[in-house]
Amino acid sequence: MGNTFTRNILSRLLGSVWFFSLALSAVGQTSRGLAPDILKEKLAPALRHLPPGQAKETIRVQVKDKAAFQEWLKAQLPQVRQLQTDAKRNTFLLSARFSEISLLTHCPFVSFIDVGNRAPQEEAHLQNSDLTVNGVEAVHLRYPQLQGENLVVSIKEQPYDPTDIDFKGRVLAPVSSTGAPTPHATSMATLVAGGGNTSPAGKGVAWQSQVMTSDFTRLMPDETSFLQSSKISVQNHSYGVGLENYYGLESQAYDAQVLEYPQLLHFFSSGNAGTQTPTTGPYAGIAGFANLTGQFKISKNTLSVGAVDTSGQVSVLSSRGPTADGRIKPEVVAFGESGSSEASAVVSGVALLLQQAYQEQHNGALPFAALVKAALINSADDKGRPGPDYEAGFGNVDAMGAVESVLEKRYFEGVASQGKEKVFSIAVPTGAAGLKVTLVWHDAAAEPSAAKALVNDLDLTVQETSTGRKWLPWGLSAYPHKDSLILPARRQVDRRNNVEQVSLTSPAAGDYKIKVAGTHVTSESQPFSIVYEFEAPFIWTFPTAGSSLKSSQKNRIRWQAPLANGTTARLEYRWAGQDWKLIQDNVPLQEGKADWLTPDSAGLVQLRLVPDLGEALLSQEFVLSPVLPLQVGYQCEEEVLLFWPKATGANQYQVFALGEKYLEPVTTVSDTLLIFSKRENAALHFAVAPVIAGQTGLKSLTVNYADQGGQCYVKQFLARQLVTDSVQLDVELSTLYGLANVVLEKRTHGTFQAVQSLWPMNGARTTVSDPAPVPGRNEYRLRLQTAKGQTYYSHLEAVFYAPESFLQVFPNPVLAGDEVQLVLKEDELTRIQVFDQTGRMLKEIQQDGAIKVIKTEGLKAGIYLLKVWAKSGYKTTRLVLI
To answer: How high is the pLDDT of residue 840?
Structure first.
């Protein structure tokens, strides 16, 4: 108690001294800005140039002593509002004016003043999903057990649609609702964890993982205890707040959280501001660099993801590094047709697959996030300039390479200490096109005011055992000039990044040593992870065994050929057991892709690339398949008919129905239709795929037969005109299958009488007329009879038959005050006059349309005369109000 009392007294005295000295200089400061030395030490860049005035800013203040700061604030700035307190991180969310922020910088208990909550923005909407670009489809086919099962991913932004059938049975409820679902959030959740129930394009990377939403208006990390208790191991952040490039309180908080929960991975979209120019920080004024969209993306222990297009080139709008202290960001890129939001979601899904692969080898234990991060970075395919760069980081994510590095246990984990070196041995096989080694450690959170965010510094080297030759990691120039920032990577000692990579082209076979030195370790120990791989000279990445390409469409096929360097080849295909046919000549192997307009057929197919020199490079056999349009023939009280066109080359069809979570095969048929009983099959959602040489081809879009808008057999039964002098009705049936007769009926004196038979019909569409309508309202329906003797009826369709002199008012009589409708042939602008029995005009209105509405408010019960002026003259009729 005595210590507390003493501290409070000293706090008040010290605060008073500081406040008195500041009061003398505050006026000058508010007119010309804050002192440069104070700015550099305590203020975030966005707060250094605030205009003087009375407008309040929301700021986040980090303090050294919470109790002492609150005493100081209460005594010296009582008018400053405290909006929120984070005791764990020693931060306060305050609302303060410029002059008050000026005084806060001088408080001895304040360590840093950062911007407060900014409005996050979704950075793009999903345009196209292509899981072949990053090798995800190949993982699904080769390792079908890896689908993210029993893992939980959090989508931090606005809520996604929890009723979307692609998430059926896998949505975990958030703590509280954060608003209405958005298409962007639903798209991101689909990319990560969509079950493919709506269509094949709705299948995400980790398609059996569980999903939860989190509110992105809170830019600081979610509570660590909540993430752990919810078993969330990956959180995706596809949003931004505008250009920010500094290590602030949010960066610090995310770095600290990963150390608290070492299995947790945070993935941030780098942003879609790649063409913008920063205005603050060491790279201010350099167009096209240092334009990540949020300081939280600058954190060291998370992973920022840029975007490539379907060709694998970095998108122009994808945000670039470096960070303010020269670190490499983004670390990787991935496919995102509309931006880095999609790319981040894809990589989040790949991380879940890596976690599951590790769990299978370690009794369900999650890997350290540094190991997953190292696997993603190490397996990434180099893009842009050789080695890492500030546009693509370490390259385009290769899901297959990352997964196999974990499954094949091509990794090491260790602990570094000050001045000590750890050594690991590997054997490089003969014929390897490359060797790549990546070191990742999750570093201690830095102080926001530090010029360099790196706290603990480890050094990676690779040494050939037989010769003693050593290789350093790749590094980039961080000098603030565009000419320097675009320089290719060179081997150097790295003093900035907590990711280091050594790669060798065509390494000699033999033993190598991977060395990790604890150059500067402030803690007792620093855990780290290493992943390595041996690159093959050539790999087909799409299609692979089990792939399905679309018939009669342009398909992009992909391969990896790291040593191609100017080599060209013929691209050819063949049906199983048949001769080879040319697709394209002089294909550059180094491009790793080609487009193929496939034949309009189905079957087993194989590809090959035939280089100018060397052996042919054969793919595995795959399926060429059409996507069949599934349609509803009818859905009657007890049964449903589904049908689809015949697929050339297919003799059977697999029908799927939506089960508890996913589409499940229910039956295989040889016909192109399926009739099933509603009582025996409760599912509403169905899809179909051709069976080709014993393999299931591409699924159709999923159809909910209850949402097709038709009745039993009847898709459309509609009058050409509601008011007409010639009754014509358009008829469209969903199918003629099983029908024996179709009859048009009209209600006459309360009963329906046949007008005419439409059978036999030449097609599902026809137009039928009534040769003898009666003036006024006529009601029609269709009567359909099946070959089984069942009878079904359409809905009623009403037509007002209006000959040249026709005029009708209904209802008539009507209660005084109610509306009445007036029908006549002309639908042009019409003048209507209402007269009482004395001939006095009470109302005059003008309306167009075949049916006019007359309001009778203010008219008493009685008999009135209506005079209707139309193009052909005027007509009169009586109106009775009761």
So the answer is: 86
- Determine contact, residues 346/131, Cβ cutoff 8 Å: yes
CB under 8 Å to 794, separation ≥6 — which residues? 711, 714, 717, 781, 782, 784
For 37, residues 6+ apart whose C-beta sits below 8 A from its C-beta are none
Give the mean pLDDT of the chain.
Answer: 90
Side-chain-side CA neighbours of residue 238 (13 Å):
37
pTM for this entry:
0.85
d(CA 465, CA 845): 100
Cα angle 510, 515, 517; round to 5: 170
Query: In the structure encoding, which two tokens stand for residue 683, read together?
Result: 């599912």
Asked if residue 603 lies in contact with residue 667, where contact means CB atoms within 8 angstroms, the answer is no
The contacts of residue 455 (CB under 8 Å, 6+ apart) are: 443, 444, 445, 446, 522
The single-letter DSSP state of residue 713 is S
Q: Is the peptide bond prior to 760 cis by the omega test (within 30 degrees of 0)?
A: yes
**CA dihedral for 123, 128, 131, 137, sign (positive or negative):** positive
CA atoms within 13 A on the CB side of 19: 15
User: Which CA distances in Å does 42 have to 37, 52, 84, 590, 788?
Assistant: 9, 18, 20, 50, 85
Q: What is the number of H-type helices and E-type strands within the chain?
A: 12, 55
Q: Which secondary-structure segment (H or E) carries 194?
A: none
Report residue 396: phi and psi, to 5°.
-85, 125
pLDDT band at 345 (very low <50, low <70, confident <90, very high): very high
Q: Taking Cα atoms as reference points, which of 490, 489, 506 lies closest to residue 562?
A: 506
What is the rounded CA–CA span in Å between residue 176 and residue 872? 65
CA R_g for the chain: 36
List, for residues 459-507, the tens digit of each pLDDT value. Answer: 999 999 999 999 999 999 999 999 999 999 999 999 999 999 999 999 9
Question: At residue 643, what is the residue type?
Answer: F
Q: Which residues contact 125 (CB under 8 A, 6 or more apart)?
A: 183, 184, 187, 338
* Angle of CA points 420, 534, 145, to nearest 5°: 100
- Termini Cα distance of the chain: 90
pLDDT for 250 beyond 50: yes
Measured CA distances, 297 to 35, 122, 248, 290, 854 (Å): 28, 15, 10, 11, 64
Q: Which residues contact 281 (CB under 8 A, 6 or more apart)?
A: 45, 245, 246, 290, 324
If we measure between CA atoms, which residue out of 312, 313, 615, 561 comes closest to residue 434?
561
Alpha-carbon span 868 to 835, nearest angstrom? 11
Facing residues of 414 across strands? 528
> How far is the C-alpha of 57 from the C-alpha of 70, rounded, in Å?
19
In which order are the strands placed within the sheet that holds 91-97?
81-86, 91-97, 56-63, 110-115
Per-residue pLDDT at 672 exceeds 90: yes
φ/ψ (deg, to 5) at 38: -70, -40
pLDDT bin (cut points 50, 70, 90) of residue 177 is: low
**Percent with pLDDT over 70 in the chain:** 93
Note whether 632 and 710 are within 8 A (CB): yes
Tokens of 559: 């391969």
Q: Identify the DSSP state of 366.
A: P
Q: What is the pLDDT of residues 57-92, one digit of tens each?
A: 899 999 999 999 999 999 999 999 999 999 889 999
What pLDDT does residue 16 have? 44
Distance of alpha carbon 812 from alpha carbon 820, whole angstroms: 8
Amino acid at 487: L
3-class SS at 45? helix
Percent of the chain scoring above 90 in pLDDT: 73
- List 821's β-bridge partners, or say none: 810, 853
Please state, as a whole number, how many other Cβ atoms lie within 10 Å of the Cβ of residue 444.
19
Q: Decide if pLDDT at 14 tops 80.
A: no
> H or E segment at 359?
helix 340-361
